[in-house]
Description:
Layout: H1 3-35, H2 37-50, H3 60-68, H4 78-106, H5 110-138, H6 142-165, H7 172-191, H8 204-277, H9 281-298, H10 301-316, H11 321-330, H12 332-350, H13 354-378, H14 382-408, H15 415-432, H16 435-452, H17 454-466
Amino acid sequence: MNARFVIKNMSIAFLAQGISLAMGVLQSLLVPKLLGVTQYGYWQLFIFYTGYVGFFHLGLNDGVYLINGGKSRADIDKRLIHSQFVVSIAFQSIVALIVSVVAVVSGFGIARVFVLVCSAVFMVVQNAASYVMYVLQAMNETKLSSYSTIVERGVFLIPLALLLLVRVRAFEPYVIAYIFSSVVQVIYCLYHVREFPHAGFLGWGNSLREGVKSIRVGSKLMIANIASGLIVGVCRFAIDAKWGIQTFGELSFAFSLLTLYTAFVAQASMVLFPSLKQSNETEIKKFYAHARDTLSLLFPIVYALYFPMTWLLLLWLPQYANSMAYLVFILPICVFDSKMDITCTTVFKVTREESRLLYINVVTVAISALGVLLGTYVFQSVYVAIMATVAAIVGRSIYSEHVVAKRLCVGETSITIFEIVLTLSFIIMTELLPPAVAFLGYCAVYILYLFTYRGRVREIVGLLRRI
């Protein structure tokens, strides 16, 4: 594996996601300040629904990604790729029409109907962009995929700035601007594969058959990804149903901060897959061992950042004090879910063990759902529901590391145990001590953690310097 090439692509991916992160921070700080809790709740409901639009390509995008991973633009079957794209858009347009009709006649209320209809439209647009981005990533042209993200975020910035300047307090214009930016992203992506349609169309019959083949391959990965999102999603669904849109909005604000971080980190996985796909098993073993330990040592610094971040956010948005209280218990997801995505999920995809990943994620969703139901309807506590979800995610990460280490014949590490100790220390200190004392106390524990594994830290730093 060409480490420098990977790092170059990863740098561009991080730049793209960094822009997305900046935009997300802007949205998280300014939009709730202007909209108010209820209107912001509907905005977050739209963002929440759009997080699951990937379900409706049925795994076609993932199948094309897995089957063609590592192929160059010269080697890839352009006619086949284009034909499956046409079939995908036709199918999703029909689904979007059905969802829109059902929403209109449902009687949910104007605001929720608007959210559902716009989510249906966004589904077609975003899945089209996703398909082309997956093709670019499979061909190891991840920088073009990253640039498309920059275009989409940049286009959204213009109407967002105008809406904020004229102080629009209704959520609907923000939703329309969001969809428009995705339309521009599709146009940009299609431009960079503009030679694919010239390869021809296989015909509806052949295209459908080939699409079904890709779906069979990709559906497991797609469902695994959806299940991964549902681990947190069941908690948000239950809280919306039990406590209403205001509590949902407060919790969603905390989750939106979390999503900014996890989406940023996920760019590494996107870049790593096509490169690891071309690597031998020895390189994959080295990657996993170094990445697992590096992330275990680095990611817990997020807990220390909670304290200054919370202080600044509450100065700006004091009405979201409850969100910061929720964030204490949500923050461990940054550490364990992100590490799972970069290391274990990437290895599962490279070694074509989508079935195992699906099994792990589905079991985790079931455990999370059971805990959320107990927290919501038995203990009547938002905090218990959140903690059940986080515990499920932590358990998934630990189990997956065990499975991958055994599969690759890589020794397991004791660092994970200390990660859990760090996590519990952060939560206990934050809940029981004044913020300043908790911050200093956690920093002391984290420094002790790094000192304990100082040999591994030196080894990893030396490796990065050589690269």
